[in-house]
Every structure is written in C-alpha cells, then in structure tokens.
Specification:
142 residues, mainly alpha, Cytochrome Bc1 Complex, Chain D, domain 2, 2 domains, 67% helix, elongated, binds heme C
C-alpha cells in the first residue's frame, strides 16, 4: 500500500513537472514575441495622430517657404548637439541619420513631437523650418 501511494505521488509529480515545464516554455516564447512586437512598435511606428499633423504641416508649407530657409544653419543650431554635423554622432542614443530609412512625414512628425530622448521642436522651430530641416537630413543619408 505504501509503495502504491509513493508511486502515484511520484507519477503525479513528474506529470506536473512536465506540464509546467512545457507551459513555461510556451509562455516564454509568447512573451518574447510580444516584447519584440512592442519594441518594434516603439522603434518604428509613428502614432497616427502625429502622422496626421505632419501631413497638415506639409500641406500648409509652400515650396517657396521651404527654400527660403537655410536648413543647414537650422540643423547646426538645433540638431547637431545629438546628431553631429554629419548626422552620425548618436549622442544620447540618437538615431544615426545617415542610416535612417523613414519617410519625410515620419521625420517631420518626430521633429515636431519628439521621441524618447529627442526633444520636441514644436514651438521652437517654425513649421517651414521643420520641413526644410527634415528634407535637409535626407541628404545626409548614405
Ligand atoms: C537631445 C538630443 C537630440 C536632438 C537635439 C535632436 N535629436 Fe533627433 N533623435 C534623438 C534621439 C535620442 C533619437 C532616437 C529617438 C527614439 O527612437 O527613441 C532621434 C531620432 C531622430 C530621427 C528619427 C530617425 C529614424 O530613422 O528613426 C530623426 C528624423 C531626427 N532625430 C531628426 C532630428 C532633427 C532634424 C533634429 C533637429 C531639429 C534633431 N533630431 C535633434 C536625439 C536628438
């Protein structure tokens, strides 16, 4: 009788260990996938309302207004501290602008609203200056 109880106990324990081990592994991979998804979102996707604002800015600023701006000079004043003269300084974890692949609207949205360690330039730079600088940094790409 004692042996029977012990055997049943051991079997239950093994069963429990097996299911919990598998369960954990599944959870882990789901968790990792989830985290990767979150990281990807944080890195890549611009919130829709920010993109909308960027579109509005692009529509309201005329070509003539953009070319009237000395974009390089503005870049040197506002962006060089973190991105460096060539865009590849990466100070404060700033993205290497020479490796950037994002579109003009995303750039404008990010400059206007800021992101992470990057300060927003809404109210600091005029809309036309933001567009001019967003176009200028595309020229820094390799
Ligand atoms: C205080 C430091 C700082 C300053 C000043 C700064 N940036 Fe940034 N920039 C960052 C950081 C940090 C990131 C990465 C943000 C993130 O993804 O969390 C970034 C990312 C960017 C990106 C996104 C690139 C990509 O491919 O994702 C653009 C575009 C950009 N900056 C443009 C500018 C422009 C233009 C200026 C000047 C008007 C500027 N930045 C000034 C720190 C700065």
């Amino acid at each position: 009788m004692q042996l029977l109880y012990t055997t049943i106990f051991i079997l239950i324990t093994i069963g429990f260990l097996l299911t919990s081990a598998c369960g954990n592994q599944n959870n882990k991979s789901v968790q990792t996938a989830h985290n990767q998804e979150v990281t990807k979102k944080m890195k890549k996707e611009t919130p829709p309302e920010q993109l909308q604002k960027a579109k509005e800015i692009l529509q309201t600023v005329s070509e003539a207004a953009i070319t009237s701006i000395d974009a390089k000079a503005k870049y040197r004043v506002f962006c060089i501290a973190c991105h460096g003269p060539k865009g590849d300084l990466n100070f404060n974890n700033a993205t290497d602008l020479t490796q950037s692949t994002i579109g003009l609207e995303e750039s404008i949205a990010q400059i206007y609203h800021g992101k992470g360690m990057m300060t927003p330039f809404k109210g600091i730079m005029k809309d036309k200056e933001i567009v001019a600088v967003a176009k200028y940094i595309e020229k820094l790409r390799k």
